[in-house]
Amino acid sequence: MKKATDFFFDALANKNRFNILMHLRNKEICAGELQKNLGIGQTNLSHDLKCLLNCGFIIMRKDGRKRVYKINTETKGLVDEVAKHVKIYERYLKKCGILKEEKNGRI
Amino acid sequence: MKKATDFFFDALANKNRFNILMHLRNKEICAGELQKNLGIGQTNLSHDLKCLLNCGFIIMRKDGRKRVYKINTETKGLVDEVAKHVKIYERYLKKCGILKEEKNGRI
DNA sequence: TTTATATATGATAAAAATATCATATAATCA
DNA sequence: TGATTATATGATATTTTTATCATATATAAA
Questions:
Q1: Is residue B78 part of a domain?
Q2: Where are the alpha helices (DSSP H) in chain B?
């Protein structure tokens, strides 16, 4: 049985979803615009936004036929914290040797 | 090409690896003891410890034929922060509906 | 009230991560 | 030195995650 921490990382440790959060750090954006900015396919984006929404990381309001998304305060704090840590450990992470260098690639 | 953030989550968002960090939050432990406490297989544990070590999240010292591991300060801060956030969002995460409820299971 | 735009849904294919297996090394002790 | 304990390594099987496809719905405008 999965625990809250498992769900937390399932939600956050996804490239597309984390990118969405990064983009929402300082402004509200509608789905279509996110799609253009991030280059995520429409279907994936929709699934990912719903996930983030259901998890409570972002909030949504309708504006005509668009849906406008905004990050919530605590999540913004966490995303900033993660970004900070990534910067600190960047050089180690990139030469870990256990984590795969490329998607689908050899170490 | 993977970026630092991708490696960061590859390293941290792994159940075993995050559990190891949780266990190392307040004390040093050797590999064998971690194995007993966490119920991870020897091989996996070894791979995971090496990963965390290479990423700079933990440090190691040899003690006879044992290897004793300790979390570093910044990582401890991050792990605590994550634990805090998991607590805040727990109820939402568990009923996301997009994230799978069980490994290998239906939503 | 038909058409267009914006986004959602669910099934499955494709890709990636994790666990397991067999074996290797390193340190200590008899 | 040979045996034992503690841990590491690399290849591959297994499982899980992510992307894609086909289609649906919701809102607005013509």
A1: no
A2: 4-12, 15-23, 31-38, 42-54, 73-93
